[in-house]
Design brief:
The protein is an alpha/beta fold. The chain has ten helices and eleven strands. The termini are far apart. Helix content is 48%, strand content 18%. The protein has two domains: 5-258, Rossmann fold, CATH 3.40.50.150; 265-340.
């Protein structure tokens, strides 16, 4: 019968031994191992909710770098609705997961691609703290491989070490009177920092497994060349690592674009400045022409207003003259002589008509 333990008044399944937990979590504490797995699922679901999705909306999912199943241990009910897979370089961890997490399929992968999956196989790929341990050559190779095995429109949830973990590292260095300034400068200028002489040196993992930090602009510049970046959440993964929501494009890219070298970036910036100066001068000329046209239009409006004023005066004069003429006519028609000569006017009109 499977052994169970109790953590925080909660009954949990059998957990891996301290060594395997340490390799995955950096601590042999079973409470942290179990609770952090549940928190990771909440973090991933929270990010997926930004695009209106959850775990169960993806028919086939891969935990890339699953270790001994820290996250997959919590997905037994999800596995009743979707197909779950896990891969890791740690054969011992995969061996334990195969025995204790039967609702998922597991495989051991090598340090570099490929994975033993067909093209466009997964709807969802998620991980915790894989790219936080790889140099750029390994990082780029795995980004291309993850693109290969993700379906068009598929989603990836990945994590990186960002500003918060780096600030923690700086504090550690200051505490031992070491100067982290060169590291900070590298991260600032290059967007990526790989530290080989770290706490993982001479540890249980291969020599390529160390510590990597990423600046957000680097992620958008380089990772954005192969995936659509739908969200970047600072400290979105266990309130420590930054978390990314990526979408696989319909057309496969197959490579991660390099950063432009500084010299070419400077040349490009200078060309842009020169182009902007030309555009600015053209805009100034257009503004001057518009101002001249506006002055001319204002003068025309003023002239039209003057002409309209004169016309109003002339109309007033004509109206006054017409009113005077009408008054004179009324006086004539009302006069005694006009009435006495009315018969004569009729006779004269008759002769004009007959003639």
């Amino acid at each position: 019968m499977e052994q169970k333990i109790r953590l925080n008044e909660e009954t949990v399944p059998q957990l891996p031994g301290p060594d395997l937990m340490f390799r995955v979590a950096g601590t042999p504490d079973p409470g942290w191992f179990w609770n952090s797995g549940r928190t990771s699922i909440e973090d991933i679901n929270g990010l997926l909710s930004l695009v209106g999705k959850s775990f169960t909306d993806f028919p086939r999912a891969l935990d890339f770098g699953c270790g001994c199943g820290r996250i997959l241990l919590h997905l037994q009910s999800v596995a009743e609705m979707i197909e779950l897979h896990g891969v890791d370089i740690d054969a011992d961890a995969i061996g334990w997961a195969r025995q204790h997490v039967p609702w998922a399929s597991f495989a051991v992968n090598q340090g570099l691609p490929p994975l033993d999956f067909p093209d466009e196989y997964f709807d969802l790929i998620f991980n915790h703290s894989v790219f936080s341990h790889l140099d750029e050559r390994y990082q780029d190779a795995w980004l291309v491989e993850l693109e290969r095995i993700t379906k068009p429109g598929g989603v990836l949830v990945l994590s990186v070490l960002g500003e918060h973990p780096f600030a923690e590292l700086e504090k550690t260095w200051h505490d031992v009177n070491a100067d982290p300034t060169p590291l900070r400068e590298t991260l600032r200028t290059e967007g990526f920092l790989y530290i080989k002489d770290d706490s993982w040196a001479n540890g249980p993992f291969p020599d390529f497994y160390h510590t990597a930090f990423h600046a957000p602009w680097y992620i958008f510049e380089r990772w954005g060349s192969i995936f659509d970046i739908k969200a970047y959440v600072v400290r979105g993964d266990l309130d420590f690592q930054d978390q990314l929501l990526l979408r696989r494009r319909n057309q496969r890219v197959g490579r991660v674009a390099p950063l432009p070298n500084p010299a070419s970036q400077l040349t490009l910036a200078q060309e842009r400045v020169a182009s902007l100066e030309v555009a600015l001068n053209e805009s100034r000329q257009r503004i001057a022409a518009l101002e001249l046209a506006l002055d001319e239009a204002s003068q025309r409006v003023t002239a039209l207003q003057s002409a309209l004023t004169r016309s109003d005066e002339e109309v007033g004069q004509w109206r006054s003259a017409a009113e005077r003429s009408a008054g004179d006519l009324e006086k004539v028609l009302a006069s005694r002589s006009w009435r006495l000569t009315a018969p004569l006017r009729k006779v004269m009109a008759h002769f004009r008509f007959q003639g």
